Each structure stands twice: as C-alpha cells, then as structure tokens.
Amino acid sequence: MLILAVGVGFLAGCASGTNFNRWGAGSSTEAAAQRGTEMGGASQRVRAGDTLYSIAVAHDLDWRTLAQWNGITDPRSLRVGQLLRLTNPRAPEAPAQGALTASDARTSAKVAPAASPNAPSAKPAPLPAGNLVWQWPVQGKVISRFIDDNNLQKGLILGGAIGEPVRASAAGEVVYAGDGLPGYGNLLIIKHNAEWLTAYGYNQSLLVKEGQTVAAGQVVATMGRRDDKALDKTGSLLFQIRRYGKPVDPSPLLPPR
User: Fold this and answer.
1) Average pLDDT for residues 148-168, to the nearest whole number?
2) What's the number of CA atoms in the CB half-sphere (13 Å) around residue 227?
3) Residue 112 lies in a domain
4) One domain for residues 240 and 166
C-alpha cells in the first residue's frame, strides 16, 4: 500500500527535541506518515496504543466527528491496522486549480472594500464551560503562553520541579494514557464531557489508566521535562484545554493567581 508521507509539524518540542512554538506539542511527522489517500482523502492506520481520542487530538478533530466519519459507534472498538478517514467523506471536491465556475465569473470583478486600519478588532466570545470549574494542574509559572491561531502553540507550558504532582484540571474520564503521540512524551487526555478535553504532556510518569474516572485536583501524573536532552533540571508540563477537539487558550478559563 502506498502511503503518502506528509511532513507536518504537530504540537510542541518535547522528548523528540522538536519546536513547540510551531505547533504546540511537537512534530507529528511520524503520525503524518501514516496518512494515505485510499479513501479519497487523508487517512491514518490505527497503531497499538491509539485511541479514538488520541487520534482526534493529533489532528485537532472532535472525537465524535471522527467517529461519525468512520461509522464508529463505540470509541473503544478500534482495531490495530484499521484505516480511519480524517476528512469528511461528504465534503464536495474542490474545483481544479485554475478552474473558474459560473458563480466565480459573475463575482470575480467584485472587490471587497478594504477594512479601515483604525477599526477595532473583534473580541473573542467567552467560552461557556457548563458546570466545569477549571483549576491549574500545577502551581509553577507560565513559561510559554498559548499563541495558536492555526499553526502555533496550542497550549501552555508550565514550569516546576521534575517529579512534582500534576493534577486533573477538572473531573472526568481518562481516555488516553501513553507515549504514542510524537512530541507529547508521556501524555494523558481527560474527557470532561462531550464538549471539553484536557491534555497533559511531558510527564515523567502517569499515575492513572485509560477508563479511570478522576476527580478535580486528583494527582494523575508527575512532571517531566519538555526535552529529555536538556541539561538543566527544570521540569515542565504541556497543558491544553480543547473544546470540540480544537485547542483554546486556557488562560481565560483558569482562575487568576
């Protein structure tokens, strides 16, 4: 089978030494190399240790959307070697490059007015979190902030001491615990409800297992290092909050300190 290798960075530099500021948690070159076009779009084969949630996080997808595209009714039913579609099978194909539709021809001469340079920028709408009350997973300072809008850092890097406790930001179910996502190191993903997930990367050790229910503030891991090759002894945690699979800035959701 021909696999189309796609050189795509993924989230942030960690044990692999990749650049966090490009994607937010490391390079996904290995994951991207699993993609193919057998289904007429991007796809990925399930590897040992993968879950529906980890694959969705790797591609910034809502796990329910990924399940729907692949006819999956039970997120626990993945099989090693199973080929998952990563794009909407019902999405219309884009017109060939250079092709001009009749609609394009009628509107091609219309030019949108330029925005006023003094126009105020729109403020992002607040994100309702239902009954969730977020808390900081560690007490260390923020080393690097969320700066993503499409291709930059997709979470916070929090500092601390190697081996210090990492706590669940809210109650939920552990839906991934492993090291199979390039750039994350030892990673936990906790599902809080149908809308919200949190991800905790770079851990030294994981103290909970997939399927386990955790309470808010429960110790779920110990802090590791962003880059195992680093000579300093500073610990760091990659912390993400995701809504419908998309990373959002955790800072406005967390309590002030």
Assistant:
1) 84
2) 12
3) no
4) yes
Q: How many CB atoms lie within 10 A of CB 136?
A: 17
∠147-157-215 over CA atoms, to 5°?
Answer: 115
148 lies in the same domain as 240: yes
In terms of residue numbers, what domain contains 237? 142-248
For residue 158, tell me if it sits in a domain: yes
Identify the bridge partners of residue 66 per DSSP, sorted by sequence position.
Answer: none
| Position 217 pLDDT exceeds 90 | yes
The reply to whether 80 falls in a domain is yes
Is 13 or 90 the better-scoring residue by pLDDT? 90
Q: How many independent structural domains does the chain possess?
A: 2
pLDDT higher for 22 or 101? 101
Contact 86, 42 (CB under 8 A): yes
- Of 83, 198, 71, 87, give the one whose Cα is nearest residue 133: 198
3-state secondary structure of 107: helix
Q: Residue 49 belongs to a domain with what CATH number? A: 3.10.350.10
What is the C-alpha to C-alpha distance for residues 29 and 92, in angstroms, rounded to an integer?
27
Any bridge partners for residue 238, and if so which?
Answer: 157, 201
Return the ∠ at Cα 142 (arms to 137 and 146), rounded to 5°: 90
**Boundary (domain end) residue, out of 41, 63, 85:** 85
Is 250 within 8 Å of 240 (Cβ atoms)?
Answer: yes
Query: Once rounded to an integer, what is the mean pLDDT over residues 218-228?
Result: 89
End-to-end CA gap in the chain: 53
Q: Is the pLDDT of residue 60 over 90?
A: no
78 pLDDT above the threshold of 50: yes
Give the residue carrying structure tokens 């040992």.
Answer: 48
84 close to 55: Cβ distance less than 8 angstroms: yes
Tokens of 160: 């601390």
Report d(CA 157, CA 146) in Å as an integer: 8
